[in-house]
Amino acid sequence: MLKNKFPNCLNHSLFEWINLISNVFIPLIIGILTIVLPLQQENLNEHQHENSKTIVFNNRLSYIQSLHDEQYQNILNIYQQALMNLILKYNFSNNSIENERILLIIRTKTLHVLRQLDPVRKLSLIQLLIDSGIQYRINISHVDLSSLIFPPGSFYNHLQFINILARNISLKNIYLFQSNFSYSILDDSLFLNSNCSYADFRYASLQRTDWTNTDVTQAIFNYTNLYQAKLTKEQLAKVQSLQGAILPNGSTVAA
Question: What is the pTM of this model?
Answer without folding.
Answer: 0.72
